[in-house]
Amino acid sequence: MGQSAVLRLLRVAMPLGAMLIFWNAAPAAAQLADPWQTAYTGEHATGSHVIGLWQFEQDAPGADASGNGHTAVLKGAQIAAGRFGSGLESFPGWPVNDKQHGAIVASKPELSPSGAFTLELWINPKKDLADSGRAYLIDKMYASSDDYQFTLEAPDKSGRRTMRVALGFGETSESWFSTEPLTLEPGTWQHLAFT
Question: Are 176 and 165 a contacting pair, CB within 8 Å?
C-alpha cells in the first residue's frame, strides 16, 4: 500500500484508561509528526492514513472519530475521565471477573492491514493492575495465525511489565517483546505504541 494508516484508541483506564489509533503501511514523515501529546483533530484524526480513532467521548462513547464508521460497542467497560476528555475504563479479567470488559469493534478487512501499520494508545493504570497477570490492550487475534494482539505481560518480581505484540501471517505468527520492561505508575497517563 502506498499510504500509511493509523488505528488510534486514545484513552483507556484498565485496570487502564485509553484512546486508540491505527495506521497501515510505513508512516510518512508527516504522520510521524502527528501531535501524539495532544488530542487528535483535523487531518490527524480524519486523514487518509487513519483507519480508526476511538476517543470514548461521553456523548458518543463508541464513535469512530476517523469518520470510517468502525463503531465500537462497550461491553462491561464504562466511560470515565480520560487523557484528553473522556476515556474507556475497564476492569480486571479472569480470574477476578471472567466477563468481557472493553470496546468491541466489528471485524472488517480494513482493520487487518496487509502491510506495515502503527497502533497507539494512552493508558492510565489503576492500582489493581499491579496484582493482575497479562493485560490485553488490543486483541484481534481470534486464531494464533491471524491478525494482531498487543499485551502487557505479567509483572516481574519488581512489578515491571514487558510489552508484547503478536502478529499473525496466515499460517504462522510471531511475537515481539519490548527490550526494556516498563514501570507503570498508577494514576499516571502513559503513551504506548507499536509500528
Answer: yes
Q: Which helix (H) or strand (E) holds 32?
A: helix 29-32
- The two most distant CA atoms of the chain are separated, in Å, by 45
**Pairing status of strand 50-54 against strand 6-13:** parallel
**Rounded to whole angstroms, how far apart are CA atoms 157 and 138?**
25
Quick one: which H or E segment has residue 173? strand 173-177
Nearest alpha carbon to residue 79 among 55, 52, 56, 60: 56
Q: In angstroms, rounded to a whole number, what is the distance separating the alpha carbons of residues 90 and 77? A: 5
**Do the strands 102-105 and 117-123 form a parallel or antiparallel pair, or are they unpaired?**
unpaired
- Strands laid side by side in the 173-177 sheet: 135-139, 148-152, 163-168, 173-177
User: Residue holding cell 471477573?
Assistant: 97
Contact 151, 171 (CB under 8 A): no
Strand-strand pairing, 85-89 and 6-13: parallel
Query: How many other CB atoms sit within 10 Å of the CB of residue 113?
Result: 21
User: pTM, whole model, 2 decimals?
Assistant: 0.81
**7-11, 84-88, 134-138, 177-181: which has the minimum mean pLDDT?**
7-11
